[in-house]
Predict the structure of Molybdopterin molybdenumtransferase.
Amino acid sequence: MVETRRPIKVEEAIERLMKFSTPGVVTHVPIEQAYGNFLGEPLIADHDVPFFNRSPYDGFALRSQDTVDVTRNEPLKLEVVGEIGAGSVHDTVVGENQAVRIMTGAQIPDGCDAVCMLEMVEPIDEAGHTYILVKKKFRSGENISFRGEDTKQGTELASRGSYINPGIVALLATFGYKQVPISQRPTIGIIATGSELLDVGEPLQPGKIRNSNAYMVISQIIRAGATPLYLGQFSDHFATCFDQVKRALDKVDFLITTGGVSVGDYDYLPQIYKELGANVLFNKVAMRPGSVTTVAKKDGKLLFGLSGNPSACYVGFELFVRPIIRTYLHCVNPLTKKAMGTLGADFPKPNPFDRFVRGHVTYKHGGLVATPAGLDKSNVVSSLAKANALIVLPGGTKGYTEGDQVQIMLLEDQEGLQVSLDG
Ligand SMILES: Nc1nc2c(c(=O)[nH]1)N[C@H]1C(S)=C(S)[C@@H](COP(=O)(O)OP(=O)(O)OC[C@H]3O[C@@H](n4cnc5c(N)ncnc54)[C@H](O)[C@@H]3O)O[C@H]1N2
Ligand code: MOO
Ligand SMILES: [Mg+2]
């Protein structure tokens, strides 16, 4: 008699799993390599930006109090006593009725408190001296970029675990991080099981298929922020698979297997967990696809037994492996971001279990529209190409029609969602 597995709710599976999620260590990389990593420490401004009052324009720095009586008909003549480009400083205090020619980004000279744009003045040359005619009053602070107006010293600009985007790279450079503290990526081993599997370079043979899961999972691991370690594909032979899984555990932080996790004669993963003495957290989840997804723990390491069916394998990874990776990377929001959107096509199938339809999300009329990306079957691979989201159809619901409001998990998002049991 085949063992009957008791399915648990997706939320419960995630809850059981997240109890074992731990953050990893921090390492450093040169700033040129920081993009696409996750911050190992919060990024805090250690000085004001800008660090000095500066000119936002090419023009003339002047003293606003000199201009109090200026009108269009009674312009003020100021003597130009110096010229500074960005990076240079004017080293004397500017006096009454004096101005300094200044370029964008240059430090405002002492004594000055406003800048007049170049286009607004008339230059006059008299006896070897340059003067300008100013035709309007200036407020103190007019056309000045003040010290600290961009950000103040002590401000947290990005939390630990933030995805390092080009803007964060700019900040890292601003604050002098030649070496950037990043969360070390976990190494995730991948083992594909199945006697039917051909390597990618092999010609098709009767009864065989090419191993697509391993390469798909490698890409998902990279997308989630971890480092894949491909350990090969193996036939459905217990001793071989057992040996491979056992040996893999020393080399990785987490291990993913694909296939062999259901109840078939050659589905050896359940037996492997048993012989390893691994603690199985769950082996059946009330979801489609991916109901056979199994997670076990051995010597502090999580083993993810993902389904052999490509769509089920894909969904199992996004629901269960990704949050573990994101926690390891110190992300405050390790779960995949969810949003509400409109269903872009009818989905007539009823949903006895929570269903995660591979969907394609676009923007229409200012909102999100999610359309099933192809044939919705667990063993399908073609629907994955367009998938950038999972459309969540809760268990116990009937079919859905185009235009219905649905929850969408955004797979390409980097911001994430906090762990919350009702989230
Ligand atoms: N009697 C039952 N049969 C099945 C059940 C069940 O509850 N009772 N569950 C079904 C569900 S649901 C799924 S999903 C699959 C899960 O199967 P396994 O995880 O054991 O995977 P395999 O049997 O090894 O393979 C399933 C399917 O996927 C193909 N495959 C496997 N590896 C790869 C790969 N690397 N790349 C591409 N495709 C792969 C394989 O050829 C099979 O077609 O079990 C159902 N059965
Ligand atoms: O794990 Mo299966 O995908 O529910 O078809
Ligand atoms: Mg099987």
Observations:
- The pocket of magnesium ion (ligand 3) is lined by residues 260, 262, 264, 267, 308 (CB under 6 Å).
- The radius of gyration is 31 Å.
- The chain has four domains: 10-25+184-328, 28-49+151-183, 59-134, 338-410.
- Helices lie at 10-18, 166-174, 213-224, 238-248, 269-276, 310-328.
